[in-house]
Amino acid sequence: MAFNDDSFIREVNEELRSDQMKGVWRRFGRYIVVVAILIVVGTAGKVLYDYWDDNRSSGTGDQFLAAMKLADENKNDEALAALDKLEKEGHGAYPVLARMRAATVQVQKGDAAAAIAAFNEIGKDNAVPAAVRDAAKMRAGWLLIENGTYEQVSAAVEEMAVPGNAFRHSAREALGLAAYKAGNMAQARQWFQSIVNDTDSPRNVANRAHMMLDLITASGKAPAAQG
Q1: 3-class DSSP state for residue 69?
Q2: Is residue 4 part of a domain?
Q3: What are the Cα distances from residue 20, in Å, to 12, 31, 189?
Q4: Span 21-42, average pLDDT
Q5: The domain boundary residue, chosen from 103, 126, 148
Q6: 73 and 142 assigned to the same domain
Q7: Among 19, 49, 59, 216, which residue carries the largest CB count within 10 Å?
Q8: Over the range 105-117, which residues count as b (16 or more CB within 10 Å of their CB) and which as e?
Q9: Domain, as residue range, for 169
Q10: For the chain, the helix, strand and coil percentages under 3-state DSSP, each to the nearest 5
């Protein structure tokens, strides 16, 4: 869907001047979450691609690609069946990749609860490489913004919201949005401010954090940051 960033920001500023916080979130909240999720998916996808690339010599590679094609064609049940077989019978990296892809297919089917459960299970499996476990936790955390509580999001991703963690920017943004959605503006401000204060934050993430800080300030429900 085409979206004009200048128009979006201009409309948000108009909402701010009208002090219509609820209206802003109702109109733009889902867009903010979706854009951020796409970034998380891209980051997780890079991790998974590298993992797959290191193991692509396996004879199950063609089966995995065929299952992905079914998913891309929205043949979800067929894709899940193929991925389940790969999880049980595949070699090398493919069983793990099949689990991750199957969870994503559950999202496509609209079964967020099943997807969250699957990603959480992968995130807790010590047999899975750490980078893939973190990617799974992040996917669960972002799904929980709309389908869970702040506490659930925190349990999924807060351990990654620390300096040096590759997923810290996405984790902080997820926590900030979850706190904002829960009405905890002080907590939301802390997370968005931590993004702004991190000089390594990607520009698009930092820009969204600035916008959310403006929304929080306009709400009058959290004190402005000092210093």
Answers
A1: helix
A2: no
A3: 10, 17, 18
A4: 52
A5: 148
A6: yes
A7: 216
A8: bbbeeeebebbbe
A9: 150-226
A10: 75, 0, 25
103 and 134: one domain? Answer: yes
Contact partners, residue 41, CB within 8 Å, separation at least 6: 139
Which residue type sits at 87? E
Enter the tokens of residue 34.
Answer: 């979706």
Note whether 98 and 84 are same-domain residues: yes
Residue ending a domain, choose from 148, 181, 210: 148
- Mean pLDDT across the chain, nearest whole number? 80
Q: Count of domains in the chain? A: 2
Q: How far apart are the first and last CA of the chain?
A: 39
Question: Rounded CA gap, 75 and 131, in Å?
Answer: 28
Q: Report the pLDDT value the prediction gives residue 186, as an integer from 0 to 100.
A: 94
Q: Using an 8 Å Cβ cutoff, are 104 and 81 in contact?
A: no
Cβ atoms of residues 64 and 99 within 8 Å: no
Residues 157 and 187 both lie in one domain: yes
CA–CA separation, 179 vs 171, rounded Å?
Answer: 12
* CA pseudo-torsion sign 173, 206, 198, 215: negative
**168 and 198 in contact (C-beta within 8 Å)?**
yes
Question: Are both 166 and 186 inside the same structural domain?
Answer: yes
pTM reported for the whole predicted model: 0.72
110 phi, psi to nearest 5 deg:
90, 10
- Each residue's pLDDT tens digit, 56-92: 545 577 888 899 899 999 999 999 999 999 899 887 7
Residue 27 lies in a domain: no
Residues 6+ apart with CB under 8 A from 32: 177, 208, 211, 212
